[in-house]
Design a protein that fits this description.
113 residues; mainly alpha; 2 domains
């Protein structure tokens, strides 16, 4: 890796703070002499990851055992459907409670509602 040029803003800031070219950063000048290399990251795995994870080959598993269902697909859909049903039931319960409150107020305080 090549060292940074003297026209670099970071180089100039370090020079102003007392750093000497060719020495490491740190109290005893023990730090790195070269800047850390950078690379463009196109995946969503996080910093420090080496290679993107390969997805398992589902087709080869199905060929070995055709009766075996594909993993994860039915469970995920069932889980999402159950969540939607639960949300709808909760919303219906809230609406019923609200309607009960309104009926209660109409019965005892008809002028206010």
């Amino acid at each position: 890796m090549a060292s940074i040029g003297s026209s670099n803003v970071g180089f100039q800031l370090l020079k102003k703070s007392g750093w000497k070219e060719g020495t490491g950063l740190g109290a005893q000048e023990q730090g790195r002499l070269e800047p850390i290399g950078t690379r463009l990251k196109n995946n969503k795995r996080g910093l420090g990851s080496k290679e993107p994870r390969l997805k398992p080959n589902v087709e080869s598993d199905v060929e070995k055992d055709p009766q075996k269902p594909k993993p994860g697909v039915p469970k995920k859909k069932a889980k999402l459907a159950a969540k939607r049903v639960r949300k709808m039931q909760e919303e219906e319960k809230r609406l019923q409670e609200r309607e009960f409150e309104m009926a209660f107020f109409r019965e005892f305080w008809p002028d206010n509602v």
